[in-house]
Amino acid sequence: MKTIRIAVLALLVCSVAQIQAQYALKTGNMQFNGGIGISNWGLPLYAGLDYGFDKNISIGGDISIRTFGAGLQGYTSILGLSANGNYHFVELLGIDDIYDVYAGLDLGFYTGLGIVNVGAHIGGRYYFKKNMAVNLELGGGNALSAGKVGVSILLNQD
């Protein structure tokens, strides 16, 4: 009987630990993101902010710029402004909060092209320090085309 109690207690402790897992960007906090994009049209540079809207949801925006050769016309520059929303799977998957796995949608406007795009993406971060991570995001239909790679820095923490 004592063994069963200990096993039940251990199971409860583990389940509470899983329930309390949360990705590094907590509700009400912000993080800076910056890096380079992966694209067929030049090498885009981007910078952005994410806001922890809820324990598993973030909203944010990016600004990007790229310059590429346009044949006989010389070079063309494109400035992109986009908003995004992400769902973070850390709690759902029960993984350590040094990792952040997410997926989301973005809506952007791109000068030089004069178009509005909707895109989807999936990404991940690895927090190698309490407030700093490397990130990789793959997606399509947005300013950064096939994806982006960069760093994320938590700006405020509890």
Category from helices, strands and their pairing: mainly beta
Task: State the end-to-end distance.
Answer: 42 Å
H and E order: HEEEEHEEEE
Number of domains: 1
Round the mean pLDDT to the nearest integer and report it. 80
For this structure, the quaternary state is: single chain
- Fold-level CATH name: Porin
- CATH C-level class is Mainly Beta
The share of residues in helices is: 10-25%
Number of strands: 8
Rg calculated over all Cα atoms: 19 Å
**Major β-sheet strand ordering:** 1-2-3-4-5-6-7-8
Roughly what fraction of the amino acids lie in strands? over 45%
Largest sheet: 8 strands, antiparallel, barrel
Your description of this structure?
- The protein has a single domain (23-154), classed as Porin (Beta Barrel), CATH 2.40.160.20.
- Strands 1-2-3-4-5-6-7-8 form an eight-stranded antiparallel beta barrel.
- Strand 6 (115-129) and strand 7 form a beta hairpin.
- With 158 residues, the protein is mainly β.
- It has two helices and eight strands; from the N terminus they run αββββαββββ.
- It has helices at 2-19, 90-93; strands at 30-38, 45-52, 57-69, 75-88, 99-110, 115-129, 132-140, 147-154.
